[in-house]
User: What shape does this take?
Amino acid sequence: MSVYEAIRTRRDVRAEFTGDRIDDAALWRILGAAHCAPSVGNSQPWDFVVVRDRTTLRTFATHVAAKRHEFARSLPPERARTFEPIKVEGIEESGTGIVVVHDDSRGGPQVLGRATVPETGLYSTILAVQNLWLAATAEGIGVGWVSFYDEPVLADLIGLPGGVRPVAWLCVGPVSEFQRVPDLERFGWRDRRPLRDAVHRERYGDNGRAR
Ligand SMILES: Cc1cc2nc3c(=O)[nH]c(=O)nc-3n(C[C@H](O)[C@H](O)[C@H](O)COP(=O)(O)O)c2cc1C
Assistant: This one.
């Protein structure tokens, strides 16, 4: 699969996990792709916690369900109705969670390139997530990003030391298919923006449609 094809067909997966587990060889290949990401000052501030213990998966799924409920209750009635059928995770069905975590102290106090933009450390870890996601797509493996959690709860669940932040819980596993249209678009939550609205020439806002 070409890079462009992987980018085009990549999907956030929630409902299409088959229940089979990704095999270790493929798991290591996609982790290897994540580990190839660029990073500020070559700091490589990421780590990957692979979670397969059924009890841990269930505990996390229960927490996420509570957070989903909390969000649903915060919505005005019409949005709540739109949100209702949208699945936001496939934690147990995928059988494997990869928690991508970020250590901002990695690389010491003088990380080359981070002095002026402190968030570049975090940006680097996010790039590892994207590498993993695209590599998984090329393998025919689904990935679903879950962010409906309280950070301290997840940090405690997987035993993170102080200063190491969970950045993403990724549900990873074989899928029956990749949807062609993102779930949030299919269910009427929010559409993708046309590229033209996102591109500006010389100064921000020249297209009059930036927001
Ligand atoms: C930072 C981040 C957090 C996300 N959190 C969730 C989540 O908690 N639950 C979920 O179902 N999808 C989550 N997603 C997936 C997005 O909903 C999805 O990427 C978006 O709707 C576009 O769909 P696509 O990835 O299939 O193109 C997240 C994506 C990102 C980048």
User: Anything to note?
Assistant: Strands lie at 46-51, 97-103, 141-146, 164-174. The chain has a mean pLDDT of 97. The longest helix spans residues 54-73. The pocket of flavin mononucleotide is lined by residues 11-12, 14, 88-89, 145-148, 182, 184 (CB under 6 Å).
